[in-house]
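Moderator note: this is an archived Q&A kept for reference. The question asked for a predicted structure of one protein chain; the sequence and the answer are reproduced below.
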Amino acid sequence: MTDTALRMAVVGAGPAGLALALHAAQLLPRATITVYDARADDKDVSADPRTLALALGSVQLLRRLQAWPAAQAEPILEVQVSQAPPSLPGAEVRISAAEQAVPMLGAVLSYGALVACLQRAWLAAVAAEPQRLAGRFGAPVQAITPQPGGAEVLAAAAEGFDLVVVAEGGVFAEQSRKALSHDYRQTAWVGTVALDGAPRGTAFERFTRQGPLALLPLPNADSESTVRRAALVWCVDAGDDPVAALDDRQRRLVIDSLLPAAAGRVAAISPLKHFALGLNAERTLVQGRVVRIGNAAQTLHPVAGQGLNLGLRDAYSLVEALRFKTDIDAALSRVEWTRAPDRWATIASTDFLARSFTWSWPGLAAARGAAMAALQALPPLKTALARQMMFGRR
């Protein structure tokens, strides 16, 4: 395919779409690539504070694309997974970069920092090769129409392409329902906290009776301070929300009561935003000459932090298939079956974890605690889990 002309459109200039476009521009030198997005290219996206947790494999891909804002990211050096009382003694799993012989398990940064870096890289690529790369920013796509041997994208004008990749996702509450859809009836409260005594580079996932509570390490302006910033993802029952009516002081006290001692104490908390959680997934990535990746293909519960990582693996696999197949349809067939194990394993495991928080079966908490204790005691299984989280299923 590197010797074959290909007209590709990418709809959506978020992290997955821009990473795909940059990767294709590097590895498919004869391809013409056009990126569409509703926002103008001069809009400042860097201030978007939403938090992204990227696995090591995703960081490695972005580094290869020369679009990794390392100075604005905080490496994840250790992950601690535990269960709020009542639980068995020692019922926790600790995975560290040192024991896995990697520099980091992943990294945390803001959505704005990553998208701004990717967009700068893409606009620089367009400026260097305007004859084959283009950015249609400020041009919302109104329709994608299948055509013989391709698809037509209707924005400011209609253009025909051999392949259209949809990477425009959005959040669960705003999406039209896909083939597989389930409302978890949970609410995620998100924001940032300042933790007094928290270890640097450590992410915490705490199973509570309401749902998972996660803390992700954020960059600190003062690297020597004992007070460290962390992103908060606090999932609770939407029908019996214990967070909505609380003020900041009460929220701090509740979070402190749920966290393990190793996480430190909450010294401050930002205003929290909330959104509904659900599963919304297509059965297939490929429909004719239209491919969906990232949230356009599957929106997941944030319990495992795998949504964007899965989308970036979709993007990588698509470009690799196009690179080594001379026939577009054969390449798309390869993407469909090679991505299926990783995609469905991630969807199934995330869905299981999200649903299990709503179960109130006798002995379930003890069983979950025993499973974590066993996992911690069996290094081969723990390593297999760590590799799955860092690189996906291979």
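Archived answer notes: Residues 71-108+183-277+359-391 form a domain with the D-Amino Acid Oxidase; Chain A, domain 2 fold (CATH 3.30.9.10).
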